[in-house]
Write a structure and sequence with these properties.
heterodimer; A: mainly beta; four-stranded mixed β-sheet; 17 strands; about 10% helix; B: about 300 residues; alpha+beta; two-stranded antiparallel sheet; 7 helices; about 35% strand
């Protein structure tokens, strides 16, 4: 049976609830879970002041209500599953090492920042800095998967080092900025300055994009590894038009201001 | 045991423990995938002289292949896992990476891991790129038509080699027709290959030779031209041609099934006997009894 946390009082200011994490809840009884400390603004309160706690933890936590002001849910988690039945606030899944988070609504900024492993799936949109590193950190996401079915805002995959980010809709500006390695796939359109100062890694878009002048065009070809990804994406619920599969991709290398080993692949599908 | 006019000899095929691996080759068209498969399985009839045995298992339609392109599945067998790894490295590097538009993937879920793509990547001279999808790591090696995509590791598992049947016929033409019929039927069985040309071998061998340097020599008991020259012959009057079909499979059950359907398909007018090759039971780990295999088959 899953542990159900239902929001009964909407916090007026952000509630820092990093205790909503399988690692911190697994050995506790419901009254102990309700007594866990959370920060409501700068005040220490109890989780039970905002959430009703029912059911029992079997590896899965279901959270219900308008959670757009709840921060750090699933931060540092290493196992289990969290299902968010709605929108969720900042820093969800930050630094997570394993397990799975599913968000039925939208996620706010810093989703899965500095993630190390596991999977996050957002069925709506995500905010700025998805899968990125915190300011001053040399390395961001180091593993795992972030799947956003909708749009993401700016600086997705900033200083990303490993892992996969898939965006079903559009991405904002600076997608993959300072990227070190890993893969970002954007099925929609990308904003400006994609891959700025990227060292290595792949940014794949199924649309055309205006790139920085420090990226150089290599060729137009059929990279078979993309079909491999497409097969994987179809397995996890994306549907990709078959016309994209038969179309070539344009390969751009960059960023020349760094070591020029990154790549941006843009689909040349004519049916767009 | 007699089925129609063919005698099934009360003997057994002596099969060996080997290590097997499956690779999936894909390409832009079926023709290119097949070209790579034929190249990679060339000179791989017997471990005695080729260091490994290999053959095409089946074609894979685009919708079932790892990268949605037409594919071919190939099985490899060798006497140990390490040796098999070396053969895969050499052959994937020389025969598949060289073939236009191809990619190559591991086709077995469990078993020992052998690093193949992780070695071949050095051909990329520093321009190779690794991609990890789920638990799988792939290497993208830049080549002149784009990229060669190959799995980082392939897997090998314990398998069975050396299953066989011998078709003893009144003449060569009859033997060829029966062998072809058997091969066509046996190729429908999954997880097996028939590593010899068109699945058939005429130069069956025995262990040892009068020449000390040779570990194997012609199976003189089954040579029609030597019936009166050798101590013991298996060639009765009326038999003038013998062909052998060798089967390697991922499990003993797969090899047995291929032998069973192969024997049944080879039974034709003019096929005097169907037998199997063995070394007295002292060498191989498996003895596949023909009568037991055919169960309650009636005359």
């Amino acid at each position: 049976m899953s542990l159900h946390l239902k929001l009964h009082t909407k916090p007026e200011v952000p509630l820092e609830a990093d205790c909503i994490c399988p690692d911190k809840i697994q050995s506790l009884k419901n009254n102990e879970i309700s007594a866990l400390t959370v920060f409501h603004g700068n005040r220490q309160v109890q989780l039970g002041d905002f959430f009703d706690c029912t059911g029992s933890f079997d590896g899965e936590i279901i959270i219900d209500g308008d959670l757009s002001n709840i921060k750090h849910v699933g931060a540092l988690m290493s196992f289990g599953k969290i299902i968010v039945e709605g929108n969720i606030g900042l820093h969800t899944g930050a630094g997570m090492r394993g397990g799975e988070i599913t968000i039925e609504g939208n996620a706010s900024d810093w989703l899965a920042a500095e993630m190390l492993g596991g999977k996050i799936r957002v069925k709506g949109n995500a905010g700025h800095m998805t899968g990125s590193g915190y300011r001053g950190s040399p390395i961001g996401m180091q593993g795992g998967e972030i799947i956003v079915h909708g749009n993401v805002k700016n600086e997705t995959g900033h200083v990303m080092r490993r892992g996969l980010i898939v965006v079903g809709g559009d991405s904002g500006d600076f997608t993959g900025v300072n990227m070190l390695a890993g893969t970002i796939i954007v099925l929609g359109k990308m904003g400006i300055r994609t891959g700025a100062a990227m060292k290595r890694g792949s940014i794949i878009s199924f649309n055309d994009a205006k790139l920085l002048p420090t990226f150089s065009r290599n060729c137009e070809y059929h990279p078979s590894f993309i079909k491999f990804y497409v097969r994987y994406l179809e397995k996890i619920g994306f549907s990709i038009d078959s016309s994209y599969l038969d179309s070539p991709f344009e390969r751009w290398s960059g960023d020349l201001v760094e070591i020029n080993r990154g790549e941006i692949l843009l689909s040349k599908c004519k049916s767009k | 045991m007699k089925i129609k006019s063919t005698q099934i000899v009360d003997t057994f095929a002596e099969a060996f423990k080997m290590y097997g691996s499956r690779i999936i080759i894909t390409a832009e068209t079926k023709e290119w995938a097949m070209a790579a498969a034929q190249s990679v399985t060339g000179f791989a009839t017997s471990v005695i002289g080729c260091k490994c045995e290999a053959g095409i298992e089946t074609e894979i339609p685009s919708e079932d292949s790892p990268d949605l392109r037409p594919g071919v599945s190939v099985l490899f067998f060798a006497m140990d896992s390490e040796n098999l790894g070396k053969r895969l490295m050499e052959r994937i590097g020389q025969c598949i990476m060289t073939c236009p538009s191809t990619a190559c993937y591991n086709g077995i879920d469990e078993g020992n891991e052998i690093v193949v793509g992780g070695q071949l990547r050095y051909f990329g001279d520093g321009y190779q790129i690794s991609k990890k999808i789920g638990d799988k790591r792939l290497w993208r090696i830049p080549v002149m038509d784009g990229e060669f995509l190959v799995d980082d590791v392939f897997k090998t598992k314990e398998a069975v080699g050396g299953g066989n049947i011998l078709i003893l016929a009144k003449d060569q033409n009859t033997a060829l027709k029966a062998a072809k019929s058997a091969v066509n039927t046996m190729r429908e069985v999954p997880n097996v290959i028939l590593p010899f040309p068109n699945g058939v071998v005429r130069s069956g061998s025995k262990v040892g030779s009068k020449y000390k340097a040779l570990i194997a020599s012609t199976n003189d008991s089954y040579c029609p031209t030597l019936t009166t020259l050798v101590e013991k012959t298996e060639i009765d009057t009326g038999i003038n041609s013998v062909l052998e079909i060798v089967i390697d499979g991922l499990t003993l059950e797969d090899v047995e099934e291929a032998m069973r359907v192969g024997i049944k398909a080879a039974i034709k007018p003019g096929i005097k006997k169907i037998s199997a090759g063995n070394y007295g039971g002292g060498l191989g780990q498996y003895q596949i009894q023909l009568h037991k295999l055919l169960g309650n088959a009636k005359n």
